[in-house]
Design brief:
Layout (H helix, E strand, L loop, with lengths): L1 H23 L28 E6 L4 H11 L8 E5 L4 H6 L7 E5 L5 E6 L4 H11 L1
Parallel strand pairs: 1-2
Antiparallel strand pairs: 1-3, 3-4
């Protein structure tokens, strides 16, 4: 009987503590930025001359990243300068431009303003349409 009363008291104490902690915990949610594009990526800051360019943020083990880089370095890239910013070698640039998903690909104009961009795989027709507007 004493064990039963002890167990009930402990259960009640734990339940009361849980209710108290739940009421005093913060109800403010934290906004997490996901899959968004930078608005400016000056070509000079990623090692290119100030001109229309394609910048792709990648990670070494990302297979989609490798596919995107092959696509934009090929005929689809229209011969534009390409900066492949790999996370392992340039994590500071990923942080600077708030890149949280790879691949992230942007087309920038002469002033470094992002005129088009994609998070993840690139749709080839969208890509060529965007390039046609800036080339």
């Amino acid at each position: 009987m004493i064990r039963l009363l002890t167990a009930l008291c402990l259960g009640g104490a734990v339940s009361g503590l849980a209710v108290f902690l739940n009421r005093t915990s913060s109800t403010t949610s934290i906004a997490v930025r996901r899959n968004s594009l930078p608005t400016r990526v000056p070509a000079s800051e990623v090692g290119l001359a100030a001109d229309v360019a394609i910048v792709v943020f990648t990670e070494k083990s990302c297979h989609s990243c490798q596919d995107v880089v092959r696509l934009i370095r090929g005929p689809a890239g229209a011969g534009l300068p390409v900066a492949d910013i790999e996370y392992g070698t340039s994590p500071e640039l990923h942080r600077k431009f708030d890149i949280d998903t790879v691949p992230t690909t942007v087309i920038v104009d002469e002033q470094g303003t992002v005129v088009a961009g994609w998070v993840g795989r690139i749709d080839l027709s969208e890509f060529t349409t965007a390039l046609a507007k800036v080339v």
